[in-house]
Amino acid sequence: MEDESSSAGMTFLECAKYIQKSFRNPTVKFLMEKLEESGCGIQKNFIKAGHCQEDCSGGFTRGSGIVLCYNHLQFQDQVEQTMIHELIHAYDDCRSANLDWSNCAHHACSEIRANHLSGNCRYKYELLRGYVKMRGHEPECVKRRALQSVIANPNCSQVAAKDAVEAVWSTCYNDTKPFDRAP
After folding, report:
1. Over the stretch 10-40, which tens digit does the pLDDT of each residue have?
2. N or C: which end of the chain has fewer CB within 10 A?
3. Separation of alpha carbons 107 and 101, rounded Å
4. Residue 55 in contact with residue 72, Cβ under 8 Å?
5. Torsions phi, psi of 143, nearest 5?
6. What angle do CA 46, 55, 96 make, to 5 degrees?
7. First CA to last CA distance, the chain
8. Are 36 and 42 in contact (CB under 8 A)?
9. Catalytic one among 2, 4, 86, 126?
């Protein structure tokens, strides 16, 4: 789940329009192609706008697809970044026959990958969040955001989430599939 709150979101229709526009984003197109190649084609309603009670900008659920939380998104760029993040979760779910989202380590691995590969931790986004560290900000951001998401998993205590992120960090941070390298 992508955690990215904002004070004033957009309307359902604005978000739906931004979702349609996002399908032209090269990274979104690439991930959708890779999902298709992996045997997990995307149905028409796989990515949709929705109102979310949780303080997040989107989420992926096996069997339901991706919801982008219009009430927590404000700009086209946020919609695209959230779509990319959630498409990486969908890709992980597709390529791993035994992925168990209630397993803290499995969830942590996908969160590490999604935060690292989606660009959520680029310097400009970190500045907007109030983090101004010049060196090493990206891995710290990935770890922080992955930990936040895994803690939100009702099956993972704070200690279990922290242990899971640490245990899978190196393997999952360095796993860049379906990209040749981290974008």
Report:
1. 999 999 999 999 999 999 999 999 999 999 9
2. C
3. 5
4. yes
5. -65, -45
6. 45
7. 20
8. yes
9. 86
Cα dihedral angle (141, 65, 91, 126), rounded to 10 degrees?
-20
Coil, helix or strand at residue 50: strand
The pair of three-digit structure tokens given for residue 106, joined into one six-digit string: 């499995």
Is 36 one of the annotated active-site residues of the chain?
no
Task: Report angle CA 152, 157, 160 to the nearest 5 degrees.
Answer: 115
Please give the Cα distance from 175 to 8 (Å, whole number): 35
- Residue 6 reports pLDDT greater than 50: no
Tokens read off for 114 = 């999604």
- Structure confidence by residue, pLDDT tens digits, 89-148: 999 999 988 899 999 999 999 999 999 999 888 765 655 556 666 666 788 899 999 999
Secondary-structure percent of the chain, ordered helix, strand, coil, rounded to 5: 55, 10, 40
Cis peptide before 26 (omega within 30 of 0): no
Report in angstroms the alpha-carbon separations of 70 from 48, 75, 130, 180: 10, 10, 23, 32
Evaluate whether 104 touches 155 at the Cβ level (below 8 Å): yes
Q: Is 75 helix (H, G, I), strand (E, B) or coil?
A: coil
